[in-house]
Amino acid sequence: MSETLTMAKALNRGLRRALQADPKVLLAGEDIGKLGGVFRITEGLQAEFGENRVIDSPLAESGIIGTAVGLCMRGYRPVVEIQFDGFVFPGFSQIVTQVAKLHMRTAGQNPMPMVIRIPFGGGIGAVEHHSESPEAYFAHTPGLKVVSCSNANDAYWMIQQAIQSDDPVVFLEPKRRYHVKDTVNFSARPAPMHQANIARYGTDATLLCYGPMVKTCLDAAAVAGEEGTSLEVVDLRTLSPIDWVTITSSVRRTKRAIVVHEAPLTLGLGSEVAARLAQDLFYVMEAPVLRVAGYDMPYPPARVEEEYLPSVDRILDAVDRSLAY
Amino acid sequence: MRGQSHDMVQLLTPDGERLEHDEFAFTGTTDDLVGFLRDMILARRFDAEATALQRHGELGLWTPLLGQEAAQVGSARAVREGDVVFPSYREHAVAMVLGVPLTNLLGLFRGSNGGDWEKLETFKNYQIVIGCQTLHATGYAMGLQFDGAVGNDDDADNSAVIVYHGDGAASQGDVNEAYVFAASYNAPVVFFCQNNQWAISEPIALQSRIPLFQRAQGFGFPGVQVDGNDVLAVKAVTDWAMQRARAGEGPSFIEAFTYRMGAHTTSDDPTKYRRAAEDEAWKGRDPVARLTTYLRNEGAIDDAWLAAIDDEGKALGADARASIPQLEDTTMDKLFATVYAEPTVALEAQRREYAEYAASFEENA
């Protein structure tokens, strides 16, 4: 059984199914109840499941995450929504000092089955603090798992997998893709959450990307294909842990890799991927790993964000440089 | 004392005289009080031993509770089965009363483990980051309410949460957010603030222009200031607050007005930031001395009883010292295994790498 849905609707369906499947699943966050969230991801869920399952929270991010820690200790599986990426930082301390550490600190006695949903990334013409890519902060923190969906089918399945996980999962939703439609297959068994996906097969170079950049990379691969260059596109899906098996097997075949992300270049996910590929495939690759990323500046005002964000042209330029080695 | 309100609840004076109060009464027996005194003396003894163990290099750090025995014992004795305690990092007497093995506390401060308590279900981990636990407690209390464990006709089905924080923590954002959440959801949580007058070197005057208990009103729930060195008053007020929470009447705030007689931790030096006269003034309010005086006057204890407790304290101290070599350090293997509930391939690879590296030394030995 399948249906064509936007990513936003797919997330809504996934959350509904998780709420139905397990009475210990709770949603909490600012404006998620009556309004259904500023992006309407939780629309209709409070009406269906009640105010104790879909909780409108006071405007306090640390409070939302910190109380979710206590709910985990009580046996609940809270799914909290951070309204926008740039607002996660008031709750950052709770995430990195508490959520990430409690399992190890208690020798496994206190699991933290929490999902922290964050609409992230730019490209929607928003004001400042509404377009950021904070994934590296979380991926750098042991104890957390970090994933990002890039299409409606993954959104539907991955949110349920994240909720079922006994580990805390930072769930990054590419907000500029919320309204992109895709086929959601409700019956096919999904891939494991921590497995990358080859979104397009190719032979000349591999584009490594996740979340909002997957579509941009697929667009770039389509253009390159018309020009006779065959690009493989790997959707990482999971940022912590990273699925090295899929990545290295792809790059072993294409011998060239370009990492693409919106977050600033320096010490971003691309740095880790490049280091790892250099370590594992030094004698295989024909070119150094290249990175196409945001620049090392705070996210720019919306009128110039297109200059900042990796574009099809910037990606193709990097492909040309890689192929020139 | 600055910050001491004329409304402060006191049932036993520093001279050991019982007082009546319009709203709060100690309902326990004299035997109960003898038990409380024993708790306080043993907690003080254990604390002294742990401080000494730190000086001997056996613990990395210790957070002395000297002077706060009544606040901790009185409140802990109001906790009953089903209730859950979220401590800060100085609640050694609470842990003792609730039966948490004291070696668990030593293991944390020794660095043998991260706080792997034996009774974690009722006495949560110590919390080093100031105030974080107030939110955890509030969330847990929300869960109690969702579970229907509050406000039942059969009181035995009801539970509450008590969370400990200090005067310094009252300045933290998390603590204020916890007050907001607790009020918003009418959570069954008691905020037990031990105002020991000093947040390391920063006096309460820097933290608050009004007595702390008055802040509670601004959040929409009752706040009570209690003489934190008076175990009867602390027990009475905490009983009231816990019962209120269990009955579904929501959060409350207790300011236990007390004094940290020693250092904040074994790393600091209070002579640098406070006057000896202040210490002297507070010595006159000593929680152990006043209850001892009262119970002696009542004829409930005598020199023989005190001598027996002293012997018990010595044995406790000897046990604490003897436990140090018995404490097992956690292992890298156990740490690798508990970072995640669901292991990852990447971390497993690091665990193997570490194991091979460690094994290489054994082969060469």
Automatic annotation (TrEMBL), chain A:
Keywords of the record: Oxidoreductase, Thiamine pyrophosphate
Signal peptide: none
Pfam family, one: Transket_pyr
GO MF, any single term: oxidoreductase activity
InterPro entries in the record: THDP-binding (IPR029061), Transketo_C/PFOR_II (IPR009014), Transketolase-like_Pyr-bd (IPR005475), Transketolase_C (IPR033248)
Cofactors named for this entry: thiamine diphosphate
Presence of keyword Nucleotide-binding: no
PANTHER family the record matches: PYRUVATE DEHYDROGENASE E1 COMPONENT BETA SUBUNIT (PTHR43257), PYRUVATE DEHYDROGENASE E1 COMPONENT SUBUNIT BETA (PTHR43257:SF2)
The protein's name in its UniProt record: Alpha-ketoacid dehydrogenase subunit beta
Organism ancestry: Bacteria, Bacillati, Actinomycetota, Actinomycetes, Propionibacteriales
